[in-house]
Amino acid sequence: MGLTSWFWERRQFTMHQCFSLPFAFWVFFLAKRGCLSLTYRYLFVSVGGCVLAVVTMGIYSSLLFTSTLVFILLVCSVDPSCVHIWVFGIQMLWQTFWHLLIQYREYYLHEPVSIRLFLAVSCLMLLTQRITSVSMDLQEKRVHLTFSSSAKRKACVTLLPLLSYLLSFTTLLGGPLCSYSRFVSSMAGLGLNPPPNPLGAVFFKLMQVLLLELVRYRLVHFLSTYDPSNSIPLYGILWVLGLALSLRIQYYSHWRISECLNNAAGFGFWAHAPGASPDWSGLSDGDFWAIEASSRMSEFSRRWNATTASWLRRLVYRRCKRFPLFMTFGFSLWWHGCHFGHFVGFLTWAATVKADYHIHRYLHPQPSSVWRKIYTCLSWINTQMTVACIVTAVEFRDMSGLRLLSLTYIGLFPLFNIILLFMLLKLNSKVSV
């Protein structure tokens, strides 16, 4: 997929989420004034999600509705200790089918794929997070859902919060991922103990989005005036760094808009001591300055898309007894769609994170403050170069991103990290012998 097409695809999410902001404010203020009971709040949020899905995805919204229906049937019929295996297997097979269908149409038939289908599959990936999060809660007995055939009214009351969690218009097109129990408590808190007015926090974050988009626009305009293949290697490396930054800014903007939408509905508020300033950062996928200041690949990986990283740790990393790091990145590759660029990008990401652990162990800064500053600076540069390669390979998805990396020599940085990893592993094996 070209850079222009990718930007347009991401703008679809931002545009539709901005249109949803007034409805989120409406839910908050009606609930705060006591005009919406808890049941009607759940209905408003879930119906709003269904309407948003149909408007944005058209016929492809059936992908989400089918997943939700199958999940509800599994929850009602399968024992909680076994439900996660069934849910995980069926949901990932359903999602993989649509990923492969997109690849078949793109690479084999060479047909343009509807933007609505891209939106639906992206939202299906987010729905997979919420569905598996609930199934793990049921398996670990953090959540108890009881259904009785003789008490249909009670069963409907139990299902309504679950449907609202899965199809909420505040998280349908973007994260951040929150737990089911936290969602239920937040919905109940809107009427019992509502948070302060979120208007100021939402306005401040919208200004951040506007600033990020302005920086991205100027950066893309600057990059369009240069050809990285017809310049000296340093210019080519700087060009790819700028391209990767512009791609990451798209994510930062999308995450901020998602935060705004959740904050506008009253979610994400952290209560502090009386008199302290309101903190609306309880639901966040990452902060621009914190992520970009990461001086190590392992730090960047934990901070990038934070709620998804936590979900992957819970779903894969903590459950794998052998090679948990590579299994986690391997599953992330599967979840993202298994394009060729994804293979290269995610496997490189896993290898460089593994290399970071070993390199840091051998080259940990000494007590000297000068050496510590030099080490941190060099480590930050290495992280930026490596992340630029990974982002370029993953976002272009096909061979075009890899050709760009080979032309500009920036691909040597992650290659150097991987070679250094094998050298350190070999050295470590000789020392142990």
TrEMBL record:
Domain of life: Eukaryota
Compartment annotation: Endoplasmic reticulum membrane
Membrane topology: Multi-pass membrane protein
Keyword Electron transport on entry: no
InterPro entries on file: LPLAT_7/PORCN-like, MBOAT_fam
Gene Ontology biological process terms, A to Z: lipid modification
Keywords noted in UniProt: Acyltransferase, Endoplasmic reticulum, Membrane, Transferase, Transmembrane, Transmembrane helix
A Gene Ontology molecular function term of the record: serine O-acyltransferase activity
Listed GO CC annotations: endoplasmic reticulum membrane
Residue ranges crossing the lipid bilayer per the database entry: 43-76, 155-177, 232-251, 333-353, 374-394, 406-425
PANTHER family: GHRELIN O-ACYLTRANSFERASE, PORCUPINE
Protein name: Membrane bound O-acyltransferase domain containing 4
Organism of provenance: Cyclopterus lumpus (Lumpsucker)
